[in-house]
Amino acid sequence: MAFVEGGSPSAVAGIERGDELVNVNDISVDTNDRGELTTLLSAPNPTVPDVRYRMVFRRAGKLLTVDLAAAKVVADSVPVVQTFSGADGQKIGYLLFNEHTVPAELRLITAVTQLRDEGINELALDLRYNQGGVVYVASQLATMIAGIKRTEGKTFATYLFNDKRAAKNSELSFLATACLPSLTGSRCSTTAPLPTLDLRRVYILTQESTCSASEAIINGLRGVDMELVLIGERLVESLMAFLAPKTAGSLIFQLNTRAVTRRVLAIMPRASCRAQASRRGILKAAEWRTT
């Protein structure tokens, strides 16, 4: 288990980060049987509520058996915000950011306000479980970290479409104001200034699934010469932009599987990001460039 969502059936049952799944409904995770694999793959992503699975985990050499029922869980995009005092008197903030969603904007504003008021000098931004999402939220967070002086008037990302759609090319600036759109509309409900930390350096925790808008944060901060200390797996710089035009009542997500950043060229997205795109039936149509 890489991460356990607070309040989820797994959390209530006492499952912890680091627990190793051994079997589901008496089916070993090492099985090669197609039918058994289908059962295994459906367990982490059930579509029917209250369906129960018996799972066996290994923890510190001992087996732990739990019965879990599928349930709807509202994920917290910013589940942890803490400030620590170093031996030298410096205050170090820690922010766990798990997904770029519309509701995440308010959670990030609240978190950054807390860290600012606590007077942090350094920040550890944990993006290990963040596979991306809404890019304007990435721009806002980058501004909140770096500050207005460093980002004002600068481009956060440039959307570059293929040669058939070049007229749609556009730029996204470092956003300095809140938006907080309603979930049923696209209009912003506020234009209040975002809180800022005005840091010169940030430590960023990454792993294989840190991709897309999370990498936009990293490259956006690189583009304004922030000092970045990356801790974890090396990124492949796989940036992808999505479109979602409605076609015959269905949403078709489109992207170009190539992304160019200011300092690194990546030809293909990482496997984890590419697998997500494949599952959603994504087509090639656009790329983006962070400056």
UniProtKB/TrEMBL annotation:
Q: Which GO terms describe its cellular component?
A: outer membrane-bounded periplasmic space
InterPro entries to which the protein is assigned, alphabetical:
ClpP/crotonase-like_dom_sf, PDZ_sf, Tail-specific_protease
Q: Which GO terms describe its biological process?
A: proteolysis; signal transduction
- From what superkingdom does this record's organism come? Bacteria
This chain's source organism reads Piscinibacter aquaticus
**Which molecular function term from Gene Ontology is one that the record holds?**
serine-type peptidase activity
The Tail specific protease domain is annotated at 91-234
Q: Which Gene3D superfamilies match?
A: 2-enoyl-CoA Hydratase, Chain A, domain 1, 2.30.42.10
**Mind telling me what this protein is named?**
Tail specific protease domain-containing protein
What is one Pfam family matched by this protein? Peptidase_S41
